[in-house]
Please model this.
Amino acid sequence: MAEGDTLVSVDYEIFGKVQGVFFHKHTQAKGKKLGLVGWVQNTDTVQGQLQGPISKVRHMQEWLETRGSPKSHIDKANFNNEKVILKLDYSDFQIVK
Model:
């Protein structure tokens, strides 16, 4: 397996103006477009988990940290618990209520 294809899992939490701006829907759409799996949930922040090839996860992390949904304003993005995985734990990218 090439280095960019190594599967990883990482948790994330996004702070800023991320409520009422469809951040979770845009996150789900971007994750699916990149072929990632995991989940996203609105709390006081937006949090979730990404899983997939490390190159795609890195792309998604950059998007979460710098872009987000069109009307969002991201103050901070935390990424934790990154680990190499042998298989994906999810089959899709879900919005968790």
User: Anything to note?
Assistant: The chain is about 25% helix and 40% strand. The first strand starts at residue 7 and ends at 17.
